[in-house]
Specification:
There is one protein chain. The chain contains nine helices and seven strands. The protein is of the alpha/beta class. It has one domain: Beta Polymerase, domain 2 (2-Layer Sandwich). The strands form two sheets. A five-stranded mixed beta sheet has the order 3-2-1-4-5. It has a two-stranded parallel ribbon with strand order 6-7. The longest helix has 14 residues. This is Nitrate reductase.
């Protein structure tokens, strides 16, 4: 498939009342480059590709943004509390990607897309957001083919192969989605 067709396919899979509600909450925060990412998108896509009618439970809802002018963790904690008050029973996780390079021992990232390109798996490095015209946008620094082909592969910029393998093992993805292909 062409990249634009892949994007439209993801948008179609994400077109759900709960997803749209969540995206509206995130957009209302007016965070620079704010979006919902990682397992929130990945799990929903893998569920659809496996033909599941019930969503696999999420550990959390990953909200990411990029603001190098305010990298205080307290800001993220405040945003998490605000989102969790609006939707009781959901576990929101908010992380400013402008400070994640420190945790990863890397040079500063320049954007959401740059930060995501350093995530462990290509299939996880996918995010969605609503623009001001209520159109869904997809951010995918490694493209969407691995996600759509259910291929779990280490991102080229993620340097820790042992951590990648441990993560895949601990997350037990093959138990939830047996059609996945894990590449080492």
């Amino acid at each position: 498939m062409k990249p634009e067709e892949d994007i439209q396919r993801i948008i179609h899979m994400m077109n759900d009342p709960q997803v749209l509600e969540d995206l509206h909450y995130v957009r209302a925060l007016r965070l620079p480059q704010g979006c919902i990412a990682a397992g929130y998108v990945r799990n929903r896509v893998w569920d659809k590709l496996h033909g599941y009618t019930t969503a696999t439970p999420l550990n959390d809802i990953d909200v990411i943004y990029f603001d190098p002018k305010n990298t205080l963790e307290e800001r993220d904690e405040h945003l998490e509390l605000s989102l969790n008050r609006k939707q009781a029973g959901r576990n929101w996780s908010v992380k400013n990607q402008a400070r994640m390079h420190i945790r990863n021992g890397e040079a500063p990232y320049s954007s959401i897309e740059d930060a995501m390109s350093h995530w462990p798996e290509t299939a996880t490095a996918v995010a969605i957001r609503l623009n001001d015209e209520d159109q869904m946008e997809v951010i995918c620094p490694h493209g969407l083919s691995d996600l759509l082909e259910m291929r779990v592969r280490q991102s080229p910029l993620f340097r820790h192969t042992t951590a990648f393998r441990q993560r895949v093992f601990e997350k037990q993805w093959l138990d939830n989605w047996p059609l996945l292909i894990v590449e080492n």
